[in-house]
Amino acid sequence: MPFYVMLTKLTSEGRETVKDNPKRILEVNKEIEAMGVKVLSQFLLLGPYDFVNIIEAPDNETVAKVAIELGARGTIDTLTMPAIPIEKLIERLSK
């Protein structure tokens, strides 16, 4: 399955939610997985984005659905990019 990097920024409402209920982050991960996307790793960031998630999904449309669903809640803004494993790149370039 393809990999993606999802960067997220908390909105003021999102910051309030995480402050009041930090475990909400893990609950959202379960909701994402119920939509067919596997969260492989997640990190808190210091900078213009608050979190980075490395995710695996069957296709672009599934990732788009997750981004729209999460963004529609008003608690985060997302930036999602496809990620190509270096091994696959080397394999393709070697042909």
Largest sheet: 4 strands, antiparallel
**Number of DSSP helices?**
4
Which stretches are low in confidence, meaning pLDDT under 50 for 5 or more residues running? Answer: none
By CATH, the topology is Alpha-Beta Plaits
CATH class: Alpha Beta
Query: How much of the polypeptide forms β-strand, as a percent range?
Result: 25-35%
Q: Quickly count the domains.
A: 1
Oligomer: single chain
The CATH architecture category equals 2-Layer Sandwich
Shape descriptor reads elongated
Our Rg estimate from Cα atoms comes to 14 Å
Structural class of the secondary elements? alpha+beta
Lateral strand order in the biggest sheet: 2-3-1-4
**Could you name the CATH homologous superfamily?**
Lrp/AsnC effector binding domain/regulation of amino acid metabolism (RAM) domain
The sequence of SSEs as H and E is EHHEEHEH
CA-to-CA gap between the ends?
A: 21 Å
Number of strands: 4
Mean pLDDT: 96
DSSP helix fraction:
40-55%
Overall description:
The protein is α+β, with helices and mostly antiparallel strands. It has one domain (3-93): 2-Layer Sandwich (Alpha-Beta Plaits), CATH 3.30.70. It is built from four helices and four strands. A four-stranded antiparallel sheet has the order 2-3-1-4. The two termini are 21 Å apart. The mean pLDDT is 96.
